[in-house]
Amino acid sequence: MMTRKRLFGGLLAAAFLVTATVGGLHATTRGRALLGLGGCPFDPASKPASPEALESFRTKSLASLRTGGTRAPARPALGFVLGTTGRAEVVAWGAAKGLACAEELGGAALRCEGAAARFEDETTPSRVRDAYFRFAPGGGSTPGGALVAVDVVHEGAGPDAALGVARRLVASTERALGVQMRTVGDANAASLSAGRASRAAYELRFDDYAVDVSVTNLADPDTPPGREIVVREQYRHLAELPNR
Question: Does a structural domain hold residue 65?
Fold first, then answer.
């Protein structure tokens, strides 16, 4: 079975992008200031940011995803609603699923790990291995902060099973929003089986909401057959929420 370290370590494109971005930010005064918002991981002396600064930096970093057009009719995410669901509901979900959840980013995020069924029925079997939640600053009607982003990684599966999970996620999103997601790459078993880093994705963009479902081959010599394809689902609220 793939460990969390190997799952995330295998997302090569994301790793290269982060490395390049962090390196570039360190090279400029403004970049170093932005990194300081979250407490630079390469500088132990850097101070953690306030929840408000973290949320502002999060939305600014997602600006390129905004369409400048239509707002989403709804913002579903793992059964929750971005911008509306509160922290207590997410904590209760993790407890009900038997996952181990812990705060990160000074309380601005919650990570839940373990193994939990993604769907209540077994039509398309899949299990969540890692679920990461971001929250806006709390207060008012959502003590602890409203949910603004969800990032879920599933257990590895074979290409047909992984594609089945991804297509079910896509169909659920399309039904909820009444629009079709865009396919990126060749979403078929043969292409995904071509080798490590083979990938297909589905994406949807609004001015205030983004959805990405990806299917990636993370096979290595230690990966059991039928466990090499990993599904990842991401939901992001693109607009900064008021601190209510």
Answer: no
Could you give the CA distance from residue 35 to residue 30 in angstroms, rounded to a whole number? 9
Residues contacting residue 90 through CB under 8 Å, at least 6 positions apart: 80, 110, 133, 147
Q: Tokens for 28, please give them.
A: 């400029």
C-alpha to C-alpha distance for 112 and 133, rounded to whole angstroms: 8
Domain count along the chain: 2
Could you read off the pLDDT of 38-94 as tens digits, one per residue?
444 444 455 667 777 888 888 888 888 888 889 999 999 999 999 999 999 999 999
pTM of the predicted model over 0.85: no
pLDDT for 8 beyond 90 = no
At 109, phi and psi to the nearest 5? -140, 160
203 and 101 in a common domain:
yes
Residue 234: both structure tokens together: 């991401």
Which domain covers residue 197, as residue numbers? Answer: 76-237
Kindly give, in sequence order, each residue whose CB lies less than 8 Å from that of residue 242, ignoring residues fewer than 6 positions away.
none
11 plus 121 within the same structural domain: no
| 189: nearest Cα among 153, 157, 232 | 157
